[in-house]
Records
---
Amino acid sequence: MPSKRQAILLLVCSAFLWSTAGVLIKWVAWHPLAICGMRSLIAAGVLWLYVRKPRFTWSGAQIGGAIAYAATVLLYVSAVKMTTAANAILLQYTAPAWVALFSAGFLGERVTRKDWAAVGLTMAGMLLFFREGLRSVSFWGDLLALLSGFTIAWMTLFMRKQKDGSPLESALLGNLIAGLVGIPFMLGTAPTAQGWLGLGLLGVFQLGLSYIFYTRALKAVTAVEAIIVSTLEPILNPIWAFLLIGERPSAWALAGGSLVILAVVGRAALGGLKARPARVGQTASSSSEAK
């Protein structure tokens, strides 16, 4: 099992890899659900090679994590198609609030005042970051994006539930489900050579390697800590746009991004990431120290 510091580094690497999705998807001229399905099938192959002999227990947590994973990738791609990218990513990253709400009851992990402060800062930072890009263009697209925030929260909770086992199998099953859903949309015109390169990078790195990192990290951090660090993903997206196509972030975006980074770094620096995750029902002295 990785140490807390190693786990945080793995989460940052995951967020970095996830953030490449927008740029790589633009390389692929194909139906969005076909892209989603193909990258998931490629990712499933990568995860299977990594695990070698996957252990399917068919437990509630394993199946729940797989369904939540598949729902997240399918809902998000559909939401981006129906609403603005800013609306989609902002509404998806309501996830930290959902994780904080359900962690105690589902996992028995205490959600401290430090956690709630970090969740509040990340939500405020996201609002500032996407302030200039928010528009209400589609009720249904926004609803799908909001649902994807709920499902990614439960994906994290179900995977964290398997911390003593192997949560990677949930990601493997989830990718297979998403791949099967996408197969009907792959019929017809095939992608170009550039498109296949983009799909390969999406499947191997943006989904495959990222979830190897993410599931390893979940063994050493709480669900709330994991989802807070993951909010770096939408902040990193515009960095790719700036480096590759010269788009400069606005002052509001810089302010919002700074808040999110402050929340992530602050939550780590305040000591909460140095100790093992506190659990509901610990002694009163332990509870007061966690706060």
Note: The CA atoms of residues 268 and 274 lie 8 Å apart.
---
Amino acid sequence: MALLLVGASPNRLMDHELHSHDFYEIIVNTEGEGTAEIGGREYPFSPGTVHVIPPAMPHRKTAPAGFRDFYMRTDTLRRTDAFHKKEVVLSEPLILADDSCHTMTNLLAILLSRYLIQKETDAVTETLYNAVMQMIEAGISSPPVNPVVSRVIQTITASYSDPDFQVTEALTATGYSKDHLRRCFQQATGMTPHGYLTDIRIRYAKRLLRQRDAVRMPVSEIAMLCGYYDPDYFCRLFRAQTGVTPTAYQREHSTSHQ
């Protein structure tokens, strides 16, 4: 087990003096915007920014209005079973970004709670630690996403079930040109923002339909849970996206699992 320590900043800090460690440190910024100095170079940070700092590399953070973060210390960047149990040696810092669901932030929050409660490292703690390692590996493997696009993805993900949600309003709220942002969004995801919302809703509808025998929800309720007031419109859209009606999809899925 390579986990050494998990912690959180005790309060909102404006400056953290230059320092270094004999271990890897993974820092997830949760509040505030500022500049991190790592290994003599400056990197901007904001909520969701993830820094993976190699041993003996001097680093500090400053933010005019203050910042807070979670941090995890480990003696190795051990890859888990999914990554063939290899070790990684970093000579430069890794600058990653949390995903739109705040997975890394949430994992570290849960890991910290578990770390404080348990007297010794247990299987759950190790699983959470490995999950953080997997998120780092996924971040390394994935191309970087424009932070503004990431913000729109986060808004869409949080609003998929709201029938009154308007993608245009989410784009306007960023303060950027909607046309430019649509192009950036499509370049990053392969879909338009509206298409991305539709894709999330239809994929969620498929999951609900696959459970329809157990939960016995009518199509109208599934439509509402997926963000559509009008079940007829939902059915037409579902068929346009999948080639079958919701009822046919549910029937085909049930038959394939009998």
Note: The beta strands are 3-8, 13-19, 24-31, 34-38, 41-45, 49-53, 59-74, 77-78, 87-88, 94-97.
---
Amino acid sequence: MEHQEKLIQIPPIEEIHKFNELMDSSYELAKKLLPFLAKKRIPLIPENYRLFYDYFLAVNPELNRQINDALQHENLFTHNVSQRLYKAFYDVDQAKANVLAEMGEQIGNIGHSLEINLGQSLDSAGRFKQALFDSAAQMEDGTLAVDDMRDMVDSLLVETKSAMDSQTALAELIETSNRVIASLTAELKDQTRLANVDQLTQLFNRRYLTQSFQELTANLKVDDHLGISLFDIDHFKNVNDTYGHAVGDKVLMICAKIIKSLSGGEHMACRYGGEEFVLLSPGYDSNKTAALAEAIRQKINDTQITIRGINIPLTLSAGVSSYIHGESEEDFVSKADLALYKAKNSGRNRVVVYQPEMSKEQE
């Protein structure tokens, strides 16, 4: 047998340049990343490499925020910390991608099965129609013998049963297909919800806040109101340092539950990052937003948390502002952040409404 030499396909020169640029940039990033991980005593495992690769590229502000918070508050960047962050930022998206892939495959299989069964059903219906046509022609002739009549009836019965069986099989396949699609749709919806929800507090996450802000403001008229409250738990670092992160997580969940219960369904409560929460209030001006924020602050102030017989005081500060038509999400949140900064510097455990002079003080 004649030996055929296998040809090596050389990529276009543009692709080679892109590959070399990617290699160079990855190498430069690795030279910064690896010493950083060693200095911070962060194990070089695949999860950490991906987390800090994206951290150095700054592709996700919320990821950088949470990593900075972990580096500040954790004594060691343990495996549990890695897994928590990796699960929050990557596992949910991968699960969603898996569901989409499964949905695509199963819907493709369903479509193929439907195509085959529909073809069989149409063939059976065609044969049945032809049998009826032939029988009608023979009956119009008026020369059918009794035996021929019996054969014709038997043939019609066979074709009728075949057509009915095909229709039944097609109906059953459609019913099964609808159930499968409904199940996959529900699973995809659940994965989408998980991608938008903070796993600890069960409030919406920062990514969903950005998405919702764009949707809310897209249809706002000039005179429409949209309020924002930015909450920060007072002395939260002391809680973590004194009682441990398990207690800190419990405090976060308690605050989230209170914010969600007092705000109701018309508002959107989010965990903004670390110990900060955001509440978007459609239809609320600064005064109404501040009144709601004050009710939340008071409720949390009155909540008693007891750990091992020790009462842990729990308070939060809040900055409140309202949307100005056409401003960006960054400017919108920044105003609430300036008001929160004022609340913190004024003694904490209070609500402050943004005033324009606060921006001038920062200049």
Note: The radius of gyration is 33 Å.
